[in-house]
Amino acid sequence: MEEITMTNNKKNNGGRPAGRRKTAKIEISIEPSVKEEFMNLMRVQGKMASVEIGLWIREYLKRYKEVK
User: Where is there biased composition of kind Polar residues (predicted)?
Assistant: First the structure.
């Protein structure tokens, strides 16, 4: 008879990859020309828009807490 061994290995059935942090999304509405200019600038600078916007939000919150 075959022995069944239990392990701590988890099978990923989709969703967020192992090791990735849980994230939330924010959607904004801007003019297409503004988006295009911003995305081109991010590409030229080798940056990711979501990272830069996230940094801006964190800095904004930090300044808000300092004023309060």
Answer: 1-12
Burial classification of residue 59, based on how many CB atoms lie within 10 Å of its CB (0-12 exposed, 13-18 middle, 19 or more buried):
exposed
> Does the pLDDT of residue 35 top 90, yes or no?
yes
| Mean pLDDT along residues 49-64 | 96
Tokens representing 36? 């295009």
- Look at the chain and count its residues: 68
Q: Where in the chain are the domains?
A: 32-67
Over range 17-29, report the average pLDDT.
Answer: 85
Structure tokens of 63? Answer: 């300044």
CA distances (Å), origin 9, targets 12, 13, 17, 64: 9, 13, 14, 43
Sign of the Cα pseudo-torsion (47, 48, 53, 56, in order):
negative
